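Quick one before lunch.
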Amino acid sequence: MTAAAPSGSDAAASSQAEVSAEIEAIASAYDAVSDAKRVTGETQPRLDYPPYRSSLLRHPTKALQQADPEGVELWSPVFGPRDVDALEADLTIQHRGEPQGERIVVAGRVLDGDGRPVRGQLVEVWQANAAGRYIHQRDQHPAPLDPNFTGMGRCLTDHDGAYRFTTIKPGPYPWRNHRNAWRPAHIHFSLFGTEFTQRMVTQMYFPGDPLFALDPIFQSVVDPAARERLVATYDHDLTEPELSLGYRWDVVLTGPHRTLMEAGE
Ligand SMILES: [Fe+2]
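Model of the fe (ii) ion complex:
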């Protein structure tokens, strides 16, 4: 596989077929490593993943500075149950009118590697609207903004480690990784673990998305089983009559089945 231009117009000139061929070559090389040699599979996205052009430029290349975790805690934001209102978990009631699109519930549990609930966990989400547009000055693609949808919410996990959001199903959106590049629909998640220094940022996807195979960000998680853990499942028990479809997605913070962090976008 040839190394790709990292960014800019040259990178954007690649076709989907070229990027897909690069994705396939990396996947084949990964498959060629026998399970015996591969103990648990890769547990994080590839930092340098050439099909995802800007991945080559956007991670540290030098050893990280060690910081005293307790010292960091003294300067980091703090929050408590009083700071997070239960209504902040409903992204459909933040404006005077109803947002456009398909109303959904996304719910699940935050667990540690032994399956124990992580309680009181701050879960933050951000996402595009139903048309695939973010309220962000860098997002200028010609899809409409929705005056009734900001696309951000947060909640605290309960005693069972459970979280629940009501929102609008985000649309896929184009980006400039290559010609005709589209991201599968996704919701960004941030979790802090038990300390500020443990922050995890990741993305949740929707089952059956036709863009999965084409998306170099999704595919930068090269282990198929690990990639699958980023995809929510449709749950009819979460679906509410006449109101919303339900998706379930659990987040595991540690251990071999942990949810992978995103490589950045
Ligand atoms: Fe996104």
